[in-house]
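Quick start: load a record and inspect it. Here is 6-phospho-beta-glucosidase:
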Amino acid sequence: MFQMKTKFPEDFLWGGATAANQLEGASDVGGKGLSLADVYTFDEKMPKEQWSDQWHLMTHKQIEEAQDPASKKYYPKRHGIDFYHHYKEDIALFAEMGFKAYRMSIAWTRIFPNGDELVPNEEGLSFYDRVFDELNKYGIEPVVSLSHYEMPLHLSTKYGGWVNRKLIDFFVRFASTVFDRYKNKVKYWMTFNEINCVTHHPYVSLGVIEENHPNIEQAKFQGAHHQFVASALATKACKESNPKAMVGCMVSYQLLVPYSCDPDDVQATVDKQRTSLFFTDVQARGYYPAYTAKMLAEKNVVLETEPEDEQIMRDYPVDYVSFSYYMSSAVSAHPERIEGAVGNLLTGGVKNPYLPTSDWGWQVDPKGLRTALNQLYDLYQKPLFVAENGYGALDVLEEGDKIEDDYRISYLKEHIKQVKEAIADGVDVFGYTSWGCIDMISAGTNQMSKRYGYIYVDQDDMGRGTKRRIKKKSFYWYKNVIATNGEQLD
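Running the structure step on this input writes:
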């Protein structure tokens, strides 16, 4: 009756993950419009501590300058690594590694350049036809995010972003268009990438410009509500187009642990954990959790809803839960007394003395991934997909085209071990796509030198280089991991 699983499932989806705005480039090709990501700049003379400032805050002045053809600033995500013209070469390298799946996103701005058009852009649709056909040639399953930090800039500047209910219809039109177009090419979909990040960076997640909103918390959660409704309506549209397709939600999941056994630390951890779980609670269960009223009241938020919203969310929850996992975070009720953690922490946090730290201040906690998988499965009893997990580092290209990235192999190996442990625990995990399988522009800092990939791209932070693709040591390691279905990790 009970049999412990000691191996990865035979049909486990091994692969890698990218996002269109960090990868594709060709922002002025094929009728593409400007996205929120296309206005981010990078200046190698900028102090390091300012690199990620844009990620958290964007102003009208910056957006206006970015749209000025005379601007002399460098906008890295308009160039990416030119996957648009290199996709065949790149997918062939993914196939050489043995990828079973490739998690990617469709740039909304390639399909509807401004976001509010009635008729889609055929050139954009044709591009993804070619990408999916190339993946199919190698038997690689596409896992496709609809919105991955790349909504049309026009929807922010004209409509105010997701705080405006009109965006629900625009998104559903986009989703329905690609569902119908690719229903025979794509089985797995995700609606909003890291949807809980609306609390952390409302501009890139919601198209909300903070200087427009005296109560930014109201804007964040109103926008989130509209995304919940849009996600449910998109799920409905997907099922009508292809009943066999699966639609998932996706969150950034930082495992939170109490800094101490002080009851105040424990309660502070519970309170902060809800900041992330709120989003999966709504999308996986189909309704707002009981703690919503208190949480919103404490933030002085009053949601504006329509009578039909509650029912559509109940009728169309997601089929699976996917998440990114890079680190855990310790929580204290009195963080001012303890050394703080640095890095891309959604929840803040203090330094955990038991964990090592990456070059970017991210605390490395492989066992936390097993805990996270168990937590999410216990809560929702839905299949889980590890959509992102990876190690950003300053890789060095040595003579003879060698990149000895043993640190990346070590990080990924230890995390994959914990996925296997979670499967033995009884968790239903059906895929693992490590982040940034090929080097590309960093989401948060807009650098190229923060590299995650198995494939090195000869390009620097200012876009200089040949864009030549070079296999790292981790390329061959991951190839063997997939070939042995996770049995050989050393």
